[in-house]
Amino acid sequence: MALGTATVDTRAVTHNAGVLAAHGGGQLMAVVKADGFGHGAVPVARAALAGGAGWLGVATCAEALALRAAGIAAPTLAWLVRPGEDCRAAVAAGVDLAAGTPDQLVAAAAAGRAVGREAAVHLKVDTGLARNGAAPQDWPELVRWAGKLAAEGGLRVRAVWSHLACADEPGHPSVPAQLTVFDEAVAHARAAGLDPVRHLANSAAALAVPAARYDLVRAGIGLYGVEPVRGRRFGLRPALTLTAPVVSVRRVPAGTPVSYGHQYVTRRATTLALVGLGYADGVPRAAGPCARVWLAGARHPVAGAVTMDSLVLDVGDAPVAVGDEAVLWGAGRWGEPTAADWAGWAGTNPHEILTGLGARTARRYLPTGFGDHLPAGGGHHLTAGGGGD
Length: 389
Ligand SMILES: *Cc1c(COP(=O)(O)O)cnc(C)c1O
What we know:
With 389 residues, this protein is of the alpha/beta class. The protein has helices at residues 10-24, 33-37, 41-50, 61-69, 88-92, 102-115, 139-152, 174-191, 203-208, 339-346, 350-355; strands at residues 5-9, 27-31, 55-58, 76-78, 95-99, 119-124, 155-161, 197-199, 216-219, 240-252, 257-258, 264-265, 270-275, 292-295, 298-301, 311-316, 325-329, 362-366. The strands form four sheets. The chain has an eight-stranded parallel beta sheet. 50% of the residues are buried. Pyridoxal-5'-phosphate (PLP) binds at residues 31, 33, 79, 163, 202-204, 218-222, 228, 351.
């Protein structure tokens, strides 16, 4: 059963890239990891590049190579290299690699020498997230290693970068503290003779922390249209609408328990509509009794537990018919919930809602032309194939 459809408006991605690039001041790296946060990495990358992004960012070399295989040649950074991973194909394809340890530098340089093309590395300093990158006390050693390996051939240092922990909370004291550590790391690298591109900001910092913008900002969630800074709006447009058809409709009396565990009991005679999307498709079970779904022009509560493949809506006396399209989340323009609403109901972040979209859900792209997965019947290509990236 593949009943859900995710319709991605690539024009919204292009618009959001424009907003982020304008705020970024310098350059925008569009973060298209995790299949473009569930939207489809290739069409999102194309749409973001059309909107002004100059770089693409992904987690893994495989993700970067998938972009290259689709003919996208834009500068691309992969920042999570598996221990012992063979990076030769990525280096040969001109993919930049992150390095936060001497071992990672040695591996990048070895790959560079093997393929006869310098590996371009982005040296990562941990300024306070404690996730990856060199701790400040290990930074001089990492810079020393980079200089040594660059002199031997095989790599060159393109950038110095880091990542913020609390950029989405305006005024959080960790933000200026991380900027200070970052500035010191950059100063050290410059003193060692490097002239790196500097990048630190995610979407939230790109929009709300001017001092964090440096030369390049890395935006993920904002690209997909989720406002990343608590309490502020920057005119971003959600790009993805998740829909599924009503597969059956039943009239039931008051007092009817619904779904596993019988936690939900109808309060009056009502209509129950079964919608073909469940938690295996990324609808969070934890959204529980708060969850609402848009159907027949109104929001309706999810009745009882979301199941693996489907959920039940209590639609009251609304005139709902089999085949009607329910909207799980979308841009919020007519009153339908957004991914951010679902995140709030489920106690998670919108990133997890979007990246949780299951493989059974079909992807459809508006306008056709950016997508590699055109709906049956096609549609004409708006862009010339191949070039332009
Ligand atoms: C995912 C990620 C981003 C994007 O962050 P958003 O908050 O989604 O803009 C940027 N940088 C790194 C290193 C990431 O892992």
